[in-house]
Amino acid sequence: MSESAREPGNAGNAQGEDRLAELLAFLRRRLAGEYEVDEFGFDPEFTDRVLLELLRPLYHHWFRTETVGMHNVPGDSGALIVANHSGTLPLDGLMLQVALHDDHPERRALRLLGADLVYRFPVLAHLSRKTGHTLACPEDADRLLRKGEIVGVFPEGFKGVGKPFSERYRLQRFGRGGFVASAIRAGVPVIPCAVVGAEEIYPKLGDLPFLAKVLGLPYVPVTPLFPWFGLLGLVPLPSKWVIGFGEPIRTDRFDPADADDPMLVFGLTDQIREAVGQLLDELRLRRGPAFPPFL
Question: Which of 29, 37, 243, 292 is buried deepest, with most CB atoms within 10 A?
């Protein structure tokens, strides 16, 4: 066999050996405790090498995710990303995390503000903090933004992620605007963000309220596949995703004390909601059909 015929195989073997060496080095560091976490419990190496690595096949191949307007997200300073929420299960937050880490030139980490329900379950709470998330409270939001982090929030909450399929892409109420007050106090821009594609992954047709009450959950959904197919019903449908980032809305023109002005905060909250809605409409047209022609 010629030397050139052996080269592809040798290259593949070398690549495999390099990956094995990296994995062993990663495991050695974990066992030895040679890794860093910040004051919130965020572990960047674990997030990149474990969580995001598990999510990348979904992001790139199953949802075929496209990002638009990434240049609107700053590379070296703080910002608050405000996005629509949908999908029955909150995969949109995880896909947004992959987008900012993998598609942003500076590989930005997204620090999501999560509902208190997440932090009622010890294992889920620990995993959430380890992968960069924290409780949606003004104190944590203020500290992260002042540190120059990219913070993400879904103001629609469970009203957005749990809405029926018949109300897809209709924005729900944006709460009381506490996220806007945090941005004003930190003087960071607000980036409107629209996620198109999550609405179709688990079309919610109904609820199982009794079971939701027993489990202490806001809802237990009924979809075309769940609960009829058991755990297989949790496989998301392969909708095409587009995640877009709009023009930043500046807050540094305000005084930090303006964060206590409810009329100003409500007005800015409405402006942000309108910007997210407009971007959502634009991206739906850009995407076209949710599913490939063969489905």
Answer: 243
